[in-house]
Design brief:
Order of helices and strands of chain B: EHEEHEEHEHEHHEHEHHHEHEHHHHH
Order of helices and strands of chain A: EHHEEHHHEE
Helix content of chain B: 25-40%
Largest sheet of chain A: 5 strands, antiparallel
CATH architecture of chain A: 2-Layer Sandwich
Number of helices of chain B: 16
Radius of gyration of chain A: 14 Å
Shape of chain B: elongated
Strand order of the largest sheet of chain B: 6-5-8-9
Shape of chain A: globular
Number of domains of chain B: 3
Number of helices of chain A: 5
Structural class of chain B: alpha/beta
Largest interface: A-B, 24 and 25 residues
Strand content of chain A: 25-35%
Number of strands of chain B: 11
Radius of gyration of chain B: 29 Å
Oligomer: heterodimer
Number of domains of chain A: 1
Largest sheet of chain B: 4 strands, parallel
Strand order of the largest sheet of chain A: 1-2-3-5-4
Chain lengths: 135, 445
């Protein structure tokens, strides 16, 4: 299942992740797997909304695993290891005032994913690929 | 197949098959079939929303009658913390308790008293286990616990493993009575005076283990008899032992007020609870230590079986809490093990499309496809709460495409158009007016 995500659209932020959650529930995924997949999907979606112009969130669900792919067109991440540090955030002030951009998105994704791959090109965009295995 | 007990039931005579309850049910547990509402047992959490919202008073709660007291040698009433707020200030807790005894109970043990002890247990647990997943969620409201079992099973580990005040009260009351009377535990009957159906189901079929309470009597049912009793002069006032700390549990925010330490959030109303739980499931609110969650708006004073208006009750509760602020501390057990839940709360995965994930995934795709083709009006006429729910019902075999009256009407229109088209077609043998041909040539029939 694939969803389009619009940058800076806070009224709809998180809705794609919610639909993925519903799908995982209906599919009868293990609750622990569902939880990790939801956290990844939500944080990835929020990253697109906060930082990018627009992007897409895809979930590939099979009985053995859940794959989350978040692709966007946007500023990209110049230093990925730096971005993975807890508390490091490049969110502009007006976003932080809203309560987002605490710098925990990528670290939370890393904690929840069994496998993670992030590729990015500055001024072009970012592609995040994460897998959670269903035990 | 596990048999479920549900205290929420339908009066088939009164049900008109309207769409009110199916649309408000937080677990989409109701469908309309053959003109009547049907509750899907695995999904029902006994929250009582349907009771609240039914315009025909067709939804009701099954509770025990006072007849059940006869099954026991010694009976103890356990009034819920929300109980005192049902009465005018002139009817002080002492008079209310005495009236309750007059209904036929041998003794009374206030659940508000147990709530004080449970407040200590929660506070202590939060201090002793800082590494448990945050926020920890209250176990006091059985509808919320069941909501988590059914709809948020990944949050089961967040529920604090401490018994609810009702259970602790049942246990303490029985222990006290055994000491006092020398009777066997089985000969003593404890009865919760309940504001809601969720507590009734909790007594009959707990989420885990066995309940320490033997029966649940609806507040609304005994209210009339109590008011009558209160009009007469009170002969033996019973001294209430509960303080404001425990009584406050009956209204939203009261549990947190009793716990005091840590960063606490209180949420009331089942739909608000759902949105907070959604947030927690996403990884949010991790800086909150404890979540008080009540299925009923206003807390227990807003329960479906509560006789008094919840706003009136809230004001009275506030005054009672202030008035009973200072009371000597009673010696409740100070070991955490006394309050611990004996077994973990199991998940109740009732929202899956199939038990086999492969089948479930195939059905999921099918449901997506069907949903995209349905009108998307969520009218409820098919008996399902929404078009999406109908699609899910269809793939599980609980409903048919033809249930959708808009689709049905479209198909009829198509058929009608086809009929008109067919009627206009002429086979080659026709073309002349046959009557003319017949009268002109042969004899009339």
């Amino acid at each position: 299942m694939k969803f389009q995500v619009q940058g800076m659209d806070f009224s709809r932020a998180g809705q794609a992740a919610t639909k993925i959650k519903k799908a995982l529930q209906l599919a009868g995924m293990d609750p622990a797997t569902t939880r990790k997949a939801i956290i990844i999907a939500y944080e990835a979606e929020m990253n697109i909304v906060i930082h990018a112009c627009h992007g897409s969130l895809t979930a590939n669900i099979t009985p053995h695993k859940v794959e989350i792919i978040a692709e966007d067109e946007g500023p990209g991440i110049p230093d990925i290891p730096l971005a993975m540090q807890e508390g490091y955030s490049t969110a502009p002030p007006h976003i932080r005032e809203m309560g987002f951009g605490a710098g925990m998105g990528l670290p939370n994704i890393k904690k929840s994913a069994d496998e993670l791959d992030i590729r990015s090109e500055v001024n072009k965009g970012t592609r995040l690929w994460a897998v959670v295995f269903n035990n | 197949m596990q048999q479920y007990f549900h205290s929420v039931r339908l009066d088939e005579e009164k049900c008109r098959g309207c769409t009110n309850c199916i649309k408000h049910c937080p677990t989409e547990a109701i469908r309309v079939r053959k003109g009547r509402a049907c509750i899907i047992e695995e999904r029902c959490i006994d929250c009582g929303e349907c009771i609240r919202v039914c315009p025909n008073q067709a939804k009701l709660a099954i509770t025990d009658s006072l007849e059940k007291l006869k099954d026991f040698k010694y009976t103890i009433a356990l009034p819920a913390p929300s109980f005192y707020g049902q009465f005018k200030p002139e009817h002080t807790p002492a008079r209310v308790l005495s009236a309750l005894l007059a209904l036929g109970f041998d003794d009374v043990f206030e659940v508000a008293l147990a709530a004080e002890a449970v407040s200590w247990a929660i506070r202590h647990y939060l201090e002793v286990y800082p590494d448990r997943p945050r926020p920890l969620i209250s176990s006091a409201c059985p509808a919320v616990v069941r909501l988590i079992q059914v709809r948020f099973p990944s949050l089961l580990e967040h529920i604090i493993p401490i018994e609810s005040p009702m259970e602790i009260a049942g246990r303490m009351a029985r222990e006290q009575a055994c000491r006092k009377t020398g009777l066997e535990p089985g000969e003593i009957g404890t009865f919760f005076i309940t504001p809601c159906p969720a507590k009734v189901t909790e007594v009959k079929q707990p989420s885990e283990g066995r309940s320490s309470v033997d029966g649940a009597i609806s507040m609304a049912v005994v209210y009339g008899a109590l008011l009558k009793r209160l009009e007469m002069p009170v002969t033996n006032p019973v001294a209430p032992r509960a303080s404001g700390v425990g009584i406050g549990w009956g209204r939203a925010g009261g549990e947190n007020e009793a716990i005091k330490t840590g960063s606490l959030l209180a949420v009331d109303g089942i739909h608000s609870v759902i949105s907070v739980l959604d947030e927690i499931e996403r990884g949010g609110l991790a800086d909150i230590d404890y979540l008080e969650a009540q299925a009923c708006t206003g807390g227990c004073i807003g329960g479906p079986l509560v006789p008094q208006n919840p706003f009136v009750a809230r004001v009275r509760m506030g005054n009672l809490v202030k008035r009973h602020r200072s009371r000597e501390k009673w010696a409740y057990p100070r070991e955490l093990d006394y309050y611990r839940l004996k077994t973990p709360i199991p998940a109740r995965p009732a929202l899956t499309l199939a038990s086999d994930p492969r089948v479930a995934l195939a059905r999921l795709e099918e449901a997506e496809r069907i949903c995209a083709e349905l009108p998307g009006l969520d009218c409820g006429s098919c008996g399902s709460p929404s078009c999406r729910a109908l699609a899910e019902d269809i793939v599980q075999g609980y409903a048919r495409r033809s249930y959708c009256i808009f689709e049905l009407r479209e198909r009829l229109q198509q058929l009608a158009e086809e009929m008109v088209e067919l009627a206009q077609k002429q086979p080659p043998a026709m073309g002349r007016d046959w009557k003319q041909a017949r009268d002109g040539g042969g004899e009339a029939d």
